[in-house]
Design brief:
Distance between the termini of chain A: 62 Å
Order of helices and strands of chain A: HHHHHHHHHHH
Largest sheet of chain C: 7 strands, mixed
Radius of gyration of chain A: 18 Å
Mean pLDDT of chain A: 86
Strand content of chain A: under 5%
Helix content of chain A: over 70%
Oligomer: heterotrimer
Chains: A mainly alpha (about 290), B mainly alpha (about 325), C alpha/beta (about 400)
CATH class of the largest domain in chain C: Alpha Beta
Radius of gyration of chain C: 23 Å
CATH topology of chain A: ABC transporter involved in vitamin B12 uptake, BtuC
Largest interface: A-B, 56 and 58 residues
Number of strands of chain A: 0
Helix content of chain C: 25-40%
Shape of chain A: globular
Structural class of chain C: alpha/beta
Number of domains of chain A: 1
Largest sheet of chain A: none
CATH topology of the largest domain in chain C: Rossmann fold
């Protein structure tokens, strides 16, 4: 395979978990929940997948466990944000801490050692390929769901004007809750990819801020599934580029920092001052 | 207050459950935690060291919160402040009366610059400071790593850290043979100063107005952009100062791992302390106990110390209930009247 | 279609929804374009969309909350025609409103509420506006302060003012407000009043000039305006005038926190602020347990009194008043209006923007009418023609050019 083909493949590999996480971010934010906890969801997804695979010897069970774990964290965030009036930013930060600590704790409990797990049955190369394709399929499905189905209509409405949704007879808090759970499941999938598809183990901090890069991708992609996927691809290419340039004089830290710098640039409106959903991050309280 | 106690109880139960899961005895675990934190003069001094390291970023976070800004970047500001102090300190060899103030100011300045980046993004471009500070955290770590291993490498240093600071630049200790330094006094003084600023000064008045009712503040002639910028810069300065005190007082060098997440735990501390500087002192002490007792808990009761960060994260989620930073977009969507 | 989306399989059936909108639009005579983005619509038309959505659900009970706040007189008639037809078909219609004229003209039965309790049930045919007003207040309506002779002197001059965006903008507005007079801006909500108010308050950028006492004001600097003696009573007191969690004392200082009277060096002069708060509470009959009470615990009327009291406390030269009696009880409204007249008597230049035509007509020395951001008519107090003004508010003036009627 030519170097260029290698580069493309590597970009896709690096982009896949970002796509899953970014799609999760898009669902949540379109519904009105600012999901800072993507990083935590990736973490629990990755860890749960490895733990379950270790316990059952079956990587597919691991995959399901990862999805479930992400969904569960989404449920926690959703509940906190919609039922208990917890500030979404703060809840997200708490969940990230919780997830990191919980996963590290889990490492010792399940594997008896801190730092990294043992190697476990993983999804292998074919599994990796399926998950990469799956990311794009998920993007298309989400696009269709958001713009062509009643569920999508209600979800988007909840992110713009929850009061109007409520007066139409639908509880926007439930809509938001569903969104965070579905988003959590997607993010969990992203975590599964990191631990069971790209590798075959879990190690402390392996998510390496991808959850935050995914947030940047959501902004760049103007809160649309296709846009966010495109942005995630771009960031994946950046990561692959870092690999290629490893031998050149460019410091690796600079390459690693590029996605975050790009996100900062996005905040200045370079990527166009697209509007976030109007009620993004605003809790809806029943009178 | 009562709700807080219930939540505390709930968290203790969760912690106990986690300990059981780890195959440890919860009672032993709690005992080890408190013994490790408060069991003797050395232990208490260590707890106070942790308290000090938490107090700076917690005040920073609370300060920004009061102005209506989410400073999630205290961690990065702390690192940059520590970096500045460490890099300069490793090369500066003069009387402590000169070097220590320089290093502390350098730390505050570094943190202020780092906080200002997010401040400018917010003030000038309206960029969400949550995302900005999150990104800046990671960029700070990467930058520090690069500088300390590369261009600003001090001779005699091994790994991702600077050389040791000369003894004259070490912060004077409060108790001999401990790591407890005058940094604690500086932090306490800072808390009192902040309380005075909030309650009495015009600057504090305008800051609080910007945080509690930005539209009303704007029409009252308060410059929101300037306030946001200044708040982020000062907040960063406080966190940076904290980093500098860790470098000059605790580690006596800059190391990229100088913070086990103080900047994030600070968010919990700020919330527990109701954004009030004096209550934050108490909250910092409580969390300091958790931090310093955790290692003992791990050693004696074989409870993985990560259970502490798990509980801290849970605390943030539980305690933030209805903790609206009023005035920000986070106002309820229910329109009144 | 939100909430009852027509489906084709798993997908939304947009064509069916569109057909339904068109059918309803014809049936009820509410003209809308199904493809318009609601955000871009003028408020009156957006309200039609709201109405259509509710009518599409074929309600047994329809509740309308202040439905005519954003409508011109002609549109109000159309709305009530629709509502009447609906009622005749058997729908129960409940209208919540403070517009007594409309209540008397279009309803069958009236329930009057005060402070959360029902205080009167009346048959429309057997009552009148005065009786309803008395029931609302619980007694006689307080008299408005008397207007006195004044010698108006030049104060605020606005030339070629343009501000705001698209359909909500104000365009090329020129007028004067003199000290000792109240100039009232009549118009349906959404015709540029907010842009006008924000430009004068200095919170948005604008073209043209605004000058006070001959000195041009710099754009977008509320602090300078306050220093020059301009005070505003904003439209939304909860968001734009008060810091809800704070006490009356702390709110009293807002806007003047840097002035020498409330400041001692770098600190706030709490004693002075406290005294100011007490003066406001006493002078404006603010019902509160103490000046340390949080304003969030005050009723809307008392909150507004605090805002008005604060605005008048430092002898302003020019007062911008936007919807001063919105959502407050009739007694508080009368007090606020009286204080505005007294300010005018004392030589303050007052610009009153209100969507209540009655309020504008009752208080103003001169009335200017706004439509689509332009001033389409000016009337001196002696030659106020209510019908004329109403039709200008609805857009009649665009063909004939601005109308100026002097006494």
């Amino acid at each position: 395979m030519s170097a260029f083909q290698d580069f493309v493949v590597l970009s896709l590999v690096k982009a896949a978990p970002l796509i899953y996480a970014a799609l999760a971010g898009v669902i949540c934010e379109r519904a009105g929940i600012l999901n800072i906890a993507l990083e935590g969801q990736l973490t629990v997804g990755a860890f749960a997948a490895v733990a379950a695979s270790f316990a059952t010897g079956n990587p597919v069970v691991g995959l399901l466990a990862g999805v479930a774990a992400g969904a569960l964290v989404g449920l926690l965030l959703g509940f906190a944000a919609t039922r208990f009036g917890v500030d979404q930013i703060v809840a997200g930060t708490g969940i990230n801490l919780l997830a990191l600590g919980g996963a590290a704790f889990g490492l010792t409990v399940v594997f008896g050692q801190p730092g990294a797990s043992a190697e476990v049955p993983a999804l292998g190369v074919s599994g990796e390929r399926i998950m990469v394709i799956g990311a794009f399929v998920a993007a298309i499905l989400l696009h269709l769901a958001l713009y062509r189905t009643p569920w999508g209509l209600r979800t988007r409405a909840s992110g713009e004007n929850p009061r109007a949704v409520h007066s139409a007879g639908i509880d926007p808090r439930n809509v938001r809750l569903i969104a965070t759970v579905v988003g959590g499941a997607l993010a969990g999938l992203g975590g599964v990819y990191l631990s069971l598809a790209e590798l075959d183990l879990y190690s402390d901090g392996m998510t390496a801020g991808r959850g935050f890069i995914a947030l940047a991708a959501v902004i760049f992609g103007r809160w649309t599934p296709i846009g966010a996927t495109g942005a995630a691809l771009g960031f994946g290419a950046l990561a692959a580029l870092q690999f290629v340039l490893q031998r050149s004089g460019v410091p690796s830290e600079f390459m690693q920092a590029l996605p975050y710098l790009a996100a900062l640039a996005a905040l200045t409106g370079i990527a166009g001052r697209a509007r976030a959903p109007q009620a993004d991050g605003v809790p809806y309280a029943e009178v | 207050m009562i709700r807080g106690l219930w939540i505390g109880l709930g968290l203790a139960v969760v912690a106990a459950a986690a300990m059981l899961l780890a195959g440890a005895n919860p009672l032993l675990g709690f005992w080890a935690l408190f013994r490790g934190a408060l069991g003797g003069e050395r232990q208490i001094s260590e707890t106070l060291v942790q308290t000090t390291s938490l107090l700076f970023p917690s005040l920073a976070v609370a300060f920004a919160f009061r102005a209506g800004l989410f400073n999630i970047g205290a961690e990065g500001q702390l690192v940059i402040g520590g970096l500045a102090a460490g890099v300069i300190g490793a090369r500066l060899d003069t009387s402590g009366l000169i070097s220590i103030p320089i290093l502390l100011v350098a730390g505050a300045a570094g943190g202020a610059v780092w906080g200002s980046i997010a401040g400018i993004l917010r003030a000038r471009f309206g960029g969400n400071e949550v995302i900005a500070t999150l990104m800046l955290n990671i960029i700070a770590a990467l930058l520090a790593n690069y500088l300390v291993v590369g261009p600003l490498h001090s001779p005699g240093a091994a790994g991702a850290e600077t050389a040791e600071l000369p003894h004259s630049s070490w912060l004077p200790t409060l108790l001999p043979d401990t790591r407890l330094t005058v940094a604690l006094l500086i932090a306490l003084a800072l808390a009192f100063v902040l309380r005075w600023v909030f309650d009495r000064t015009v600057f504090g008045y305008e800051l609080r107005a910007a945080g509690d009712a930005p539209e009303a503040a704007r029409r009252a002639g308060i410059d929101l952009a300037k306030t946001a910028f200044v708040a982020m810069a000062l907040s960063g300065a406080m966190a940076g100062l904290g980093g500098a005190t860790i470098v000059t007082g605790v580690l006596h060098r800059f190391n990229v791992s100088l913070s086990p997440g103080y900047g994030f735990i600070a968010i919990a501390v700020a919330l527990v302390g109701d954004l009030d500087p004096l209550k934050i002192i108490i909250a910092s002490f409580a969390f300091g106990i958790l931090q310093s007792g955790a290692l003992t808990m791990q050693a004696l009761a074989h409870v993985p110390k990560d259970v502490v960060s798990f509980v801290e994260g849970l605390a943030i989620v539980a305690l933030a209930a209805r903790r609206f930073v009023a005035g920000r977009k986070q106002m309820t969507a229910v329109a009144q009247e | 279609m939100l909430g009852r989306e027509p489906r084709r399989g798993a997908e939304l059936d947009r064509a069916a929804a569109r057909a339904e909108v068109e059918k309803l639009s014809r049936e009820y005579g509410l003209a809308v374009d199904p493809d318009d983005v609601v955000e871009t619509l003028p408020v009156g038309i957006a309200q039609r969309v709201e109405l259509l959505r509710e009518l599409a659900r074929e309600p047994a009970v329809l509740i309308l909350d202040e439905p005519t706040a954003v409508l011109a007189p002609a549109e109000i008639d159309a709305l009530f025609a629709t509502v009447r037809a609906l009622a005749l078909r058997g729908t129960a219609v409940l209208i919540i409103t403070h517009k007594l004229q409309e209540v008397v003209a279009h309803t069958s039965r009236i329930t009057v509420m005060r402070a959360g309790k029902v205080v009167a049930r009346l048959e429309t045919a057997q009552t009148n506006v005065d009786a309803i007003a008395r029931a609302m207040v619980g007694g006689e309506l307080p008299e408005l302060a008397a207007r006195m002779e004044t010698t108006p002197h030049p104060a605020l001059a606005v030339r070629g003012l343009g501000a705001g965006e698209s359909s909500l903008a104000v365009r090329d507005a020129s007028f004067e407000v003199r000290g000792g007079e109240i100039v009232g801006v009549a118009g349906v909500e959404g015709n540029g009043q907010s842009a006008l108010a924000d430009a004068i308050a200095g919170v948005i950028s604008y073209r043209g000039t605004i000058a006070l006492g001959g000195i041009t004001l710099p754009a977008g600097e509320p602090a300078r305006r306050i220093a020059r003696g301009i005070r505003t009573i904003p439209q939304d007191r909860r968001r734009e005038a008060l810091v809800l969690p704070w006490s009356i004392v702390e709110n009293a200082a807002l806007g003047d926190q840097r002035s020498p009277s409330l400041r001692r060096g770098a600190t706030v002069d709490r004693k002075a602020a406290r005294e100011l708060a007490k003066r406001i509470v006493e002078g404006f009959d603010v019902r509160t347990p103490s000046v340390d009470t949080s304003v969030s615990e005050l009723s809307g009327g008392n909150q507004q009194k605090v805002v008005v009291g604060r605005a008048l406390a430092h002898d302003p030269k020019f007062l911008l008043v936007y919807q001063p009696t919105r959502g407050i009880d009739v007694g508080a409204a009368a007090l606020v209006q009286s204080r505005l007249i007294e300010a005018r008597n004392a030589g303050v230049a007052v610009l009153l923007i209100s969507f209540e035509l009655d309020e504008v007509l009752a208080l103003s020395d001169r009335v200017i009418v706004m439509y689509r951001g332009a001033i389409v008519g000016t009337f001196e107090r002696g030659s106020i023609d209510r019908a004329r003004i109403g039709s200008l508010m609805a857009g009649a003036g665009l063909q004939t050019g601005p109308v100026v009627e002097s006494a």
